[in-house]
Amino acid sequence: MLPRRFCHCHRARLQFLSTRLIGQNVSGDQYDVIVVGGGHAGTEAAAAAARGGAQTLLVTQKLSTIGTLSCNPSFGGIGKGHLVREVDALDGLCGRLCDQTGIHFKVLNRSKGPAVWGLRAQVDRLLYRSAMQREVCATALLNVREASVEDLMVEDPDASRPGLARVTGVRLGDGAIVLGRAVILTTGTFLSGSLKFGTSSVPGGRLGEAPSVGLSLSLSELGFTKGRLKTGTPPRIRKESVNFDKLEVHHGDERPVPFSFMNAEVAIEPSQQLLCHLTYTTPGVEDVVRDTLAANDHVQQDTKGPRYCPSIESKVLRFPGRAHQVWLEPEGLNSELIYPQGLSMTMPVEAQVALLRHIPGLEAADIAAAGYGVQYDYLDPRQLHPTLETRKVQGLFMAGQINGTTGYEEAAAQGIVAGINAFLHTRSLPPFTISRTEGYIGVLIDDLTSLGVTEPYRMFTSRAEFRTILRPDNADQRLTERAYHQTGCISGARVVTARHIASRLSEGISLLKSLCLSSYRWKQLLPEVGISQERSGHMSAFDVLQYRGVTLDALAAVFPQDLVPFLDLSDRIQVEALYEPHAEQQKLDMEQVRRDEQLVLPTDLDYLHLPASLSIEAREVLHRHRPPTIAAASRLPGVTPAAIMHLLYFLRASGQQKEAGGPLVER
Amino acid sequence: MQSAEEDCNAEVDPLAALLNDSVPKRRERIDRDGTYQAKGAFLRYNLLCNHFDQRQAHGVFETAGRLPSPAELTVWERQEDTEMDYGDLLAVFKPRHFCSVPPVGQGHTIFALSSGRGKCGVAVIRVSGPASAFCLCQLTRMKQGLPPPRTAVLHSISDPNSGELLDRGLLLWFPGSLPGLRPAEAGEFTRRAFQAGKLDLTEVEGLGDLIHAETEAQRRQALRQMAGDLGHLYQTWSHTLTRALAHLEAFIDFSEEENIEDGVLNQVDNFVRQLQMEIHSHLHDNRRGERLRSGVHVVIAGEANAGKSSLLNAICQRPAAIVSPIAGTTRDVVETALDIGGFPVLLSDTAGLRDTHDIIEKEGVRRTRERLEQADLTVALLDVVGLLEASNKLTHLLFSFLEDLNVRQKQQCILVLNKIDLLHKKELNDLHCALKKEEDLPTVCWLSCKTGSGIEEFLRVLRAELEILCGNPLLGMPSLTQARHRSHLHKCLEALGLYEYYKRADMALAAEGLRSALASLGRITGKVGAEEILNLIFRDFCIGK
């Protein structure tokens, strides 16, 4: 299927977001896909569905907040950079926009191997937001409406698919009903959100914005299981009040690496990049935290917060007696604000001021906006299919923080998958899912839907089993072509670029493999490389490239005619060479996982009374999690390999087991 | 066990005999136990221990004072493919009483194995009668008296004489009679224990070994593994490795943005080095555990007509091999499975090594050499008369003989000098003195298969050697018992090597090494998931932006 973005009338295009928009009071408006929320999940979801060809409506409480970075002014990082690359490979927005609006680019983990490089950028908050708004406006078939969504409209389910109901649209705050064949909820922290300052608590999803209470209620009525999570954000500090003189300076990369496969370079001049600064907490910080503990409800309550992005309070309480890092990050080219990464806190504002006094460089810091905590409802993501459609309500999708994740990148990744699948759903086309063996997005969604969350979920490279294959450099080769064929949500330009790179990569690699010389000759040509004396026979240039210190440039000096044309791909070819010796084993393991993923478990299995030899513990775990496949079941804690065997035996014996797309064939 | 139960003779109360310290030790007793008072008791005792086998059956025959006839052996051999019918065996051998124990109290106290026959995982032993309570106390050494009635109690069961642990089991005490009680089905309890997560994989394997344990030492090792010694060792390694991986993963995922303490990588290096050393030495235990599990290969070899077959017959106390004065009588390998001092032994008699034109004998010699290649212990047999004749080049002769037998280490060999009855005392003494000077010789045994002199001493030496080869299963590091473990541990070591190779070049590949090492260990102890790694990371490090 070809993308249809170029052949559609532009129904109600946004010119400027400040202007009033479409069909304000027209009740009974009908769309293919309705996206609720304009954050990182919502924008990617809406854009993806529209790219596919769905008439899409994005409903947001405030048009001007579309694309807001509510917390840190940065994108990417270790593991998260992988997600941005994969979203970009699926023709998403955030990677390209970061390249346009980034003000400090840095690849983390440079010394640790390309598989775990973490692409990261500080972005200009305002530039990013307006770039996102422009992008949303410019997307064909994508309409935007300012309203709050109060209720979901549902009807009897389509009997041919699992589910208890089918979504038909949403009811807005003004009572208007908008019909949609699919609805994607990306409400972030707004579901019954409440903001915490010291001992006071205000309903809200973000500072100055009202929570979604009605929607939270209607989800409860539909029978969704909810939980509560908390997170926090640091105070914003006025730049001129910071004394940078004695702080450690961190520069951006001299050669910034763009996030997007469509960009050869980023917008900002490398030399124009802004600086980051590093400072540390002192023992005085600990004292302030302890002294104000009584006035700090957020920290005292036992709602689950993230362990890896904790407030300064929980850091000093859990690991006392240490100096904790504080990164001072610029908020934008013209911004007067500094974002103190690592200082998320919820104590009363006067205590926040007192605390900053104990941090070098921030002794005279002036707080422009105090730090605060947010508590919000999330829906247990085990209620979702891997397409992010809910199991209970057909056509209803969820993406982002509502599923218990944290982070812009995690939200964007879910958004694009939900958007693509909502589009496919409206066309009754087969769903598009990404396996753990194909991408971090697959790992993310599989972890969410099979294990659920107990704290805000963040991506780490350690979560990916096939880390040396799921690299940031090859995300386009892993995802673009397949997504293009199966979804139609990928633009033509994108797939052409990916194909071009694919063919040149394989051409370059086979050329390198064909350039064979005796190892003696290689030693002569590259005397500084430690090619082993004992090694006899011939070696290809590709083999030689695996040696430490050998670059494609060095080889191109030996074979200029052959290799110079591939120098623009030298980074990618080099990474391929480095990991190739391990690819074989990994591919075998991936095959095993893929096979297990094909073994679909019936959703209606009564694990508690299954006549199979399963331990009580395994039964309860399976009953609680209802893993969709054998692969998911085998990752559940408490489900032993023996339990998996018994489960397989039972399913085979009873003929209940189906493979995706057909009956089980004996393997 | 219907038939056996019927056969259980009322006059003898074997359990009472087993428990009665005052019963004098008798010559007929086999091995360490003072319990084989009668065949019926013996069979039952073996059933109780779950390790009834051919050699012990022979023990029965020997206790009965004669060797089995071919017909009787047929009864035994049926057991190889079908289940042994103990009733039949008992029918062949009408019990003869070596002693009679006076009944305790008024009625007799009887006991019987109520569960499945043969090798099985679960044995239900029913003891009934006035002395039952006494038996229970003796077997369990319960200080505080009997367990509460009708309540199952997990307890160790020990030999009342030596106090050595025999097994662990559930005790159920029903005062009064037991009308209509049906014992549990065989295997039911084990399976449930496994499924309830009470046993880990190594423990289950240990149980398998216990079920198949054929000798005392094997049983002890199996019991030890089941108690989790081996599982505990692997578990410890798995924890160390998980920790190492968690630290490396933390370094990959967090070190640039967070202050992960310096020296984290050094710590990982230390963890890995320590593991490599421990696994390496565990793997290089000279296959002690596996040997104990599958049997030690002892090969008797030497020149033709030196008396190898006679020695074999002397060891197993039956004419297992044909013996004649003609050189080259044994042309093929004669193999016998034996229990020597509690250790399982596969004893092979081989064709004498000599140049020959006889095609069959030539093949025999080839097989001998093949056997010697696989031998754990070689019994090198020499005719002492030949030695006397060559007394001037004694050393050379002995060493070239041992070399010919493929003996590379003196520890793997016992040198046996046969036919000492043919020598005068003085000649013997001279030889003794001559050999004493040679320090590089293996242990030397002087004996005569004909007169039997020196055989006892030889058996003592053999036992000592076996103990070294198998290790004392109750001491030191638990031994490797399964080839499966060995292969996973090898893979684990290989993967740790990958870490070493990449640790300074590419962290992702180095971590890959640790991951696959952990996966290999996990195949023994159970999987370690990403979530556990993360839990460790957040426990050990302050990650926070």
Strand content of chain B: 5-15%
Main interface by residue count: A-B, 51 and 38 residues
| Average pLDDT for all residues of chain B | 67
Give the CA-based shape of chain B. flat
Amino- and carboxy-terminal Cα gap of chain B: 71 Å
Please, what is the average pLDDT of chain A? 87
Specify the biggest β-sheet of chain A: 8 strands, mixed
SS-based structural class of chain A?
Answer: alpha+beta
Structure keywords:
heterodimer; A: 667 residues; alpha+beta; six-stranded antiparallel β-sheet; 21 helices; 26 strands; 34% helix; 19% strand; globular; disordered C terminus; B: 545 residues; alpha/beta; six-stranded mixed β-sheet; 11% strand; disordered N terminus
What does the model show?
- The complex is a heterodimer of chains A (667) and B (545).
- Chain A has 667 residues and is of the alpha+beta class.
- Chain A is 34% helix and 19% strand.
- In chain A, strands 1, 2, 6, 7, 8, 9, 20 and 21 form an 8-stranded mixed beta sheet that branches. Chain A has a 6-stranded antiparallel beta sheet with strand order 14-15-16-17-13-18, with no helix packed on it. In chain A, strands 11-10-19-12 form a 4-stranded antiparallel beta sheet, with no helix packed on it.
- In chain A, helix 1 links the parallel strand 1 (29-36) and strand 2 (56-60).
- In chain A, helix 2 (80-89) packs across helix 12 (475-487), helix 6 (283-291) packs antiparallel against helix 9 (349-356) and helix 12 (475-487) crosses helix 13 (492-514).
- Chain A starts with 28 loop residues before the first strand and ends with a strand.
- Chain B is an alpha/beta fold.
- Helices cover 49% and strands 11% of the residues of chain B.
- In chain B, the strands form 3 sheets. In chain B, strands 6-7-5-8-9-10 form a 6-stranded mixed beta sheet, with helices on both faces. Chain B has a two-stranded antiparallel sheet with strand order 1-2. Chain B has a two-stranded antiparallel ribbon with strand order 3-4.
- Chain B is flat.
- The model of chain B is unreliable at 1-107, 177-197 and 210-214 (pLDDT under 50).
- Classes of the chains: A alpha+beta (667), B alpha/beta (545).
